[in-house]
């Protein structure tokens, strides 16, 4: 089938060299292993460690540290598979390009479309988080108060006004905190400027930071690299300081029970914790700007993942040791929360660090998305203008501007809740295809200076792990079958996972698949089924939209299609 036409690795490498030779319009090769590692840390250590870890700790208790280990192992399998591809296909495009090699054009398009959820749409969430941290910094450190109507999206503002009005009208007894929150919502609604009778709300700080970061990404990778390196050094230093300072306030009694809601409670935080990890794959989008991509890309992915995992586990244990897990309900700034009464001056340092941390995430994602679009444009799946390289700055100029406009407008007006889960689905989807794609690559001998994924025969290990999984989850399996007629979609997804995992285990026995990529596929599949079903609905809507665009434009304009004609 023509939709499954594949690209050969040697052709991709030749095309990349050809683009460099066209009027010397190639990207600047300025990144070394240290820069790439810092970019990985910049992408991973951000909103997750400063905000979503609070909700995960409330559900999972101190056991959320175990979830960080599980998620790190899951990402570790994927990182090794990314490293294999990065060593063989050292060009921009990330999972999109890798899928083109392994699965064919339509799958590559699907994953390229899904990656928009991770980079562009995911960056909307990060920008909204940045706005909250920035406003907190202005109020508590500089005593500057921005108008409420320029700090919130329209949907959130109207919903808060309606809820507050209903609560106050009911005459129910309200706590001082609830009363202050409801009055805040009503005042924001009443003070907002209007067009006719419609109040105007928008998130101005989120838009401004996207505009500034887009400008930085536009003017050059060298400037972006220097900025990212500085921000990483600062925020890692602050996190280490928080871990050391917090250790003096840890009460080990708060670690009991370690998993208050059992493993099920720990897994409730899977979306939040996984969202904290996405981004290490953004390193692969800068392949054409690396001095030695086949050597440095694999190393930097693994280094950044290991460093971030150690930081995450340490911070989770310190937070849940300082405060009982039940106190993290509804806490959006857990690091500042635990020091609020113990050491207010540390809270101010954390506020500054949160702004810096989320800025670095925005920067890396704003670098990643344009380079994926550039690769898709080179393949004819997007208009040629997306591959345009700025003659002076040597960056994908048009793609960078489009990314900035999409993310900026989204950050100005959109809510962030649903987008977090959509981002996790898109990222896990990419991880699954990268891990599965490694299994389809032709074997090659180990070359000096290149990463080679070690082969571990999964013929016996994978079936044994499947049996152990079924044993430990036997109660959930029985309950899912007993209540299948009126069961939640989550359990139906769980049963589907069991069937798919069994098929993969049987295929591993027959074909002697390598353990690492198979475990990457299975672990990412499991994390996928823990994401709420409503997010899956919107994900499929997103995918159908992408397929419509592919068949209307990409299918006919594909470089492979034209060469076949």
Structure description:
It contains 23 helices and two strands. It has three domains: 2-142 and 205-440, Up-down Bundle (Amino acid/polyamine transporter I); 154-201, no CATH class; 461-564, no CATH class. The chain starts with 8 loop residues before the first helix and ends with a helix. The radius of gyration is 24 Å and the shape is globular. α10 (221-247) runs parallel beside α13. The protein has a two-stranded antiparallel sheet. Helix content is 71%, strand content 1%. The longest helix is centred in the N-terminal third of the chain and has 36 residues, at 105-140. With 565 residues, it is an all-alpha fold. The relative contact order is 0.18. It has helices at 9-21, 33-44, 47-60, 64-88, 94-102, 105-140, 154-170, 176-191, 204-219, 221-247, 262-267, 270-277, 293-322, 334-339, 344-378, 397-413, 417-440, 461-472, 474-482, 489-511, 515-529, 533-557, 559-564, and strands at 194-195, 198-199. A hairpin with a 2-residue loop joins β1 (194-195) and β2.
Strand order of the largest sheet: 1-2
Amino- and carboxy-terminal Cα gap: 14 Å
Highest CATH level, the class of the largest domain: Mainly Alpha
Q: How many β-strand stretches? A: 2
The count of helical stretches stands at 23
Transmembrane segments: 36-58, 64-85, 106-130, 200-221, 228-250, 262-280, 301-322, 349-368, 398-416, 422-441, 453-473, 488-506, 513-529, 535-553
Subcellular location: Membrane
Keywords: Membrane, Transmembrane, Transmembrane helix, Transport
Membrane topology: Multi-pass membrane protein
């Amino acid at each position: 089938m023509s939709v499954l036409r594949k690209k050969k690795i040697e052709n991709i490498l030749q095309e990349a060299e050809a683009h460099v030779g066209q009027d010397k319009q190639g990207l600047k090769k300025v990144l070394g292993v240290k820069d790439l590692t810092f970019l990985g840390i910049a992408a991973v250590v951000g909103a997750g460690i400063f905000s979503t870890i609070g909700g995960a700790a409330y559900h999972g208790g101190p056991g959320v540290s175990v979830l960080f280990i599980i998620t790190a192992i899951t990402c570790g399998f994927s990182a090794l598979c990314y490293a294999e591809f990065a060593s063989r296909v050292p060009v921009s495009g990330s999972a999109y390009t890798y899928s083109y090699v392994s699965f064919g054009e339509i799958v590559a398009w699907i994953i390229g479309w899904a990656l928009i959820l991770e980079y562009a749409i995911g960056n909307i969430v990060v920008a909204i988080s940045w706005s909250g941290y920035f406003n907190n910094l202005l109020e508590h450190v500089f005593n500057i108060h921005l108008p409420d109507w320029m700090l919130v999206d329209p949907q959130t503002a109207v919903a808060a006004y309606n809820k507050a009005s209903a609560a106050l009208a009911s005459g129910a007894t309200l706590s001082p905190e609830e009363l202050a929150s409801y009055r805040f919502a009503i005042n924001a609604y009443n003070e907002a400027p209007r067009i006719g009778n419609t109040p105007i709300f928008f998130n101005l700080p989120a838009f401004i930071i996207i505009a500034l970061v887009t400008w930085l990404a536009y003017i050059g990778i060298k400037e972006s690299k220097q900025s990212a390196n500085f921000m990483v050094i600062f925020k890692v230093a602050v996190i280490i300081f928080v871990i050391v300072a917090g250790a003096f306030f840890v009460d080990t009694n708060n670690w009991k029970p370690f998993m208050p809601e059992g493993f099920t409670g720990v897994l409730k935080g899977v979306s939040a914790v996984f969202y904290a990890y996405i981004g290490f794959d953004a390193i692969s989008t800068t392949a054409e700007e690396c001095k030695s991509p086949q050597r440095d890309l694999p190393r930097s992915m693994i280094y950044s993942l290991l460093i971030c995992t150690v930081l995450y586990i340490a911070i989770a244990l310190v937070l849940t040791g300082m405060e009982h897990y039940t106190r993290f309900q509804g806490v959006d700034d857990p690091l500042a929360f635990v020091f609020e009464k113990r050491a207010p001056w540390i809270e101010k340092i954390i506020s500054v660090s949160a702004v810096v941390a989320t800025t670095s995430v925005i920067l890396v994602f704003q670098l990643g998305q344009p380079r994926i679009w550039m690769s898709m444009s080179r393949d004819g799946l997007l208009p040629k203008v997306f591959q345009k390289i700025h003659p002076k700055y040597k960056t994908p100029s048009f793609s960078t501007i489009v990314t900035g406009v999409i993310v900026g407008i989204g950050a100005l007006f959109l809510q962030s809740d649903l987008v977090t889960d959509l981002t996790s689905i898109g990222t896990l989807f990419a991880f699954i295809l990268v891990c599965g794609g490694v299994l389809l690559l032709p074997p090659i001998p180990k070359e000096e200076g290149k990463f080679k994924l070690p082969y571990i025969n999964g013929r016996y290990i994978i079936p044994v792990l499947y049996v152990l999984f079924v044993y430990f989850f036997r109660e959930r399996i029985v309950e899912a079958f007993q209540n299948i007629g009126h069961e939640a979609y989550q359990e139906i997804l769980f049963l589907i996972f069991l069937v798919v995992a069994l098929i993969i285990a049987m295929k591993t026995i027959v074909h002697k698949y390598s353990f690492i990529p198979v475990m990457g596929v299975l672990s990412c599949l499991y994390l996928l089924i823990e994401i709420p079903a409503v997010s899956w609905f919107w994900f499929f809507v997103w995918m159908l939209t992408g397929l419509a665009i592919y068949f209307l434009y990409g299918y006919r304009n594909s470089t492979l299609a034209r060469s076949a004609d």
